[in-house]
What does this fold into?
Amino acid sequence: MTGEAVDQSHLTTPERESSTVDPTSRPHRPPLPEGMSRNAWKRDQKKQKWLEQKDARNKYKKEKKKQKEIEKKEQQSSQPERGYDETNEKAEGNIRSVDVAKKGRNDMAVRAPITILIDCGFDDLMTEKENLSLSSQITRCYSENRRAVVPVNMRITSFNGRLLERFNTALKEQYKHWKGISFSPTEYEVPESGEERSRIIYLSSDSDETLTVLEDNRIYIVGGIVDKGRYKSLCLNKANSQKIRTAKLPISEFIKISGRKVLTTNHVVEIMLKWIELHDWKKAFELVIPPRKQEGFESARQKRKRQGGLQKEDSGSDGEDEHDEVSKEVVDE
Ligand code: SAH
It folds into this structure.
């Protein structure tokens, strides 16, 4: 991830951390209003910030709530149409007449001739909790595609091991009733012909190439892994060894985000769906990446840190992790 112009001035550096230990070198604090204790003033400031961010927060929460309701409906859906391991080729370009408003899905939509493939071949590399997060993220990808204005063909490969077990037990085999998606227990096939292989693009934040558009008749592979940044260049190396092209999302070109630019599987899929609908990367990023990850959004904790009020709990990072955050969103909802 070279050449990324992210303003990291708000992040804690080792220098800043050590400087906060010495109270004499603390940044200048504005004078306290008369008769107000420092703690009361801090509370007041925090409340002020909280109120300022209310609109953005409410909008985001509303959207998440809507998504959650749709996911619930998906899970409760009791009208099996397509079964396990079936391909969705027949559905391609099909127009289905289902009560869209009632179902909250866009079953009338014509699919884009684009395939998003989630490669779940990393079962052994994840903890139990990460595995659970991945199952939630796959459910989210499915429901986002179901309600997308322009859905795509979706494929899940290497659907086996603990992931399959979870879908078969805790998740009650609901995936067997999912429509417009195919599950395969084995790895995707890598075509021998270079020309055919060039239709496949493995997405990786570590790639030197940057996506500009999503093209028809291409297969975009997204790594189905939650690893909290443990495995650097994992998918890049895998794709390179299979002679598959790679590309990263054009994040730096359109939006400033705090922290690393490694997004979760479901966010990458959601961004692609939004781009296919709007043909606008900036909007796609803004709609999908949580406001707190976007630059300009300052959490109360970050503000305290900036004002020098936070010392001991700093760990040297920005205290947030993309995977944790999104996993929490997906899992806790
Ligand atoms: N350590 C893993 C990261 C997993 S994140 C790795 O080496 O890939 C889950 C998946 O989301 C990635 O495998 C990648 O396919 C996709 N992804 C995450 N951030 C991305 C970005 N900025 N650009 C393109 N794809 C990204």
Observations:
- Confidence is low (pLDDT under 50) at residues 1-25, 78-102, 310-333.
